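User: Predict the complex with N-carbamoyl-L-aspartate.
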Amino acid sequence: MKNLIDITDFGVDELFSLIDTANDIIANPKKYAEACKGKKLATLFFEPSTRTRLSFEAAMLELGGSVLGFSEASSSSAAKGESIADTAKVVSCYADIIAMRSPIEGAALVAANNATVPVINAGDGGHCHPTQTLADLLTIYREKGTLDNITAGFCGDLKYGRTVHSLLGALARYKNVSAVLISPAELRLPDYVKQDLPNGMRLMEATELETAIPELDVLYMTRIQRERFEDKAEYERLKDSYILTADKLKNAKADMCILHPLPRVNEISVKVDGDGRACYFKQALYGKYMRMALILKLLKEAESDCSRENRFGENVIFGEHKCKNPRCATAVEQELEQAVKLCDNGVLRCCYCDKEI
Ligand code: NCD
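Assistant: Here is the predicted structure with N-carbamoyl-L-aspartate placed in the model:
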């Protein structure tokens, strides 16, 4: 059965087909009004969310389906100590598809390995957020007409910013894409994310937004992820590292596209909202259409394939090595067998959170 846990679960052709469907939904919404009649989406949100949860729910309602779920851990049995695996097994009895957000890295993978319905990762800690990437790709495609030949700047918290990790993984597969990584030294892109990008991809690191901005076709601003910091004083020191103002935009290309997964906490001056290049509210809207396309795809595929896919692939060692990441599912989930993959560069990485062993 197909799930969406990591953006690389989908090939480039599948991403294009989702973009095509989303564009068709935008053009002909009535055609899809009953496409999921009788189907139920469960939204299991163990972490705060506005856009992701509500856009999933709006997506399912606009497809004629229904939604059930919870929006905080305290109102689910997780508060009593229920495991992710048991939650996934139980919710599979009530819903046809699950969207899950959790602060635990690898939580969606644990759910997918235990659910009997498709599981969508709606964000797992500081790891990845593939459905935000779907929204980002549709926005770039509609604004630029292509996903090739793009120089994209990623600015802010590249260490904990899961949306950045997933979008880089997607853009890396298009032709002639370069990325400029703009962050304070403390919040640089983690090595495990870099290692998954193809060797040929041009990556440049910068600490100043002003010097990087003139080159960019896309600028992806991000929030400093306060909830992931162990040292709150470090957050206070870094929180206003980058603020995009109308003044800084003077040196940007006239057709640069400004994205932000939102919520914004000071990274973009409100005055920028009126600039024609500001696309972040459109991006939030496009997220709904891509989630509609995704729900349609996964439900359709589940009808013809209800097999339980081995989500670990090849070169996996079970049980021998221990992941040391305290935010990993292996640190909290009852009797979860350690699974470690041997990567091309000889490095061993946890199958759940991708961190090096
Ligand atoms: C992002 C997230 O949750 O990772 N928000 C979203 O889903 N649109 C970004 C963030 O919280 O900063």
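DSSP finds eleven helices and twelve strands in the chain.
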